[in-house]
Amino acid sequence: MTTPDTVDFFERQFQRQVREADFALNPFEQLALPYVAGRVLDLGCGLGNLSLEAARRGSSVTAVDASPTAVERVRTTARQERLPLQALQADLGCFRIEQDYDTIVAIGLLMFFRRERALEILRQIVHRVRPGGRAIVNVLVQGTTYLGMFKPDEYYLFGVNELEQAFAGWTLLVARHDAFPAPEGTCKEFATVIVQKARI
Hints:
Blueprint lengths: L3 H16 L7 H6 L6 E5 L5 H8 L3 E6 L2 H14 L3 E5 L11 E7 L7 H14 E12 L21 H5 L4 E12 L3 E11 L4
């Protein structure tokens, strides 16, 4: 389950970004955008920057996040721009993907759960992408030393190549490993994959 501490951490961050109108796509969202198409599920959408831009480009988007501030921002913007976008506030610790999608996105989400739940969501993504569709997944991996956003024992750092292994048999469109400096001399190590499911 997403802990209240984690939700509060991001709620404060999102409130600040809304005040400052800071809605730029982050580097991972910029990387993902050209691959997002069709019927889209954006899990842990945050302020919805990627969801909104995908909807502007013609995708039909369901955006899901636990943050009230984030979901309200997405809903308001989508309504103002009359975009084909539905925003849902949900506890991603127990949310289930009940339908199939052309694209499922989970950027910066799965590491905020214990291993069992993180891998369960990943299995749902694998199952719920339509044939010929795409999954876009980004996680923190082993080697990350910045743990300040996590509650002890309530997170999972993936193996460096674990995402590629989870999508074995899919076409690997993008596989990247990125490292960024973090507070107090620590480091964030990310793995990102963009993969396409075989057509039947």
